[in-house]
Amino acid sequence: MEMDKSFVQKRMMEYARQSSKSMAEISKKMGHRDNYISGVGNGRFEPKLDEVLYFCELLDIVPSEFFREQEDLTLDQQELFALVRKAEPSHVKILLAMIKELQKPRRGR
């Protein structure tokens, strides 16, 4: 099965931009020159699957989340869902209550 190159390029760039690490830092940690991640983004380089998985490891991304097509969700929403999946059930209930509270219309504004 071949990976969709444009999907991988787009996802790597999205996650790299959202990361607290610079693209150069990520590139170096992956064993490449400073411009590797930006080169992936513009199609100059094609990462192999093991490199994509290492990229996920470096940025603490669950690979299933990286490869999941959720075009209707922002990266922040995707990250939230990934964190909720890892949370304790009691914490999920607290988060759910908080989100419901935030959804209530505000009066007196």
Any descriptors?
single chain; mainly alpha; elongated
Structure characterization notes:
The chain has helices at residues 5-18, 23-29, 36-41, 49-58, 63-67, 75-86, 89-103. By secondary structure, the protein is mainly alpha-helical. It has seven helices and no strands.
Rg, nearest Å: 17 Å
On the 0 to 100 scale, the average pLDDT is 86
Question: What's the helical proportion of residues?
Answer: 55-70%
The structure class reads mainly alpha
Biggest sheet architecture: none
- How much of the sequence is in beta strands? under 5%
DSSP strand tally: 0
How many helices?
7
Query: Low-confidence spans: pLDDT under 50, at least 5 residues?
Result: none
Distance between the termini: 55 Å
Q: What characteristic shape results from the CA principal axes?
A: elongated
Order of helices and strands: HHHHHHH
Q: Could you give a short description of this structure?
A:
This protein starts with a helix and ends in a 6-residue tail after the last helix. The mean pLDDT is 86.
What is the topology?
Layout: H1 5-18, H2 23-29, H3 36-41, H4 49-58, H5 63-67, H6 75-86, H7 89-103
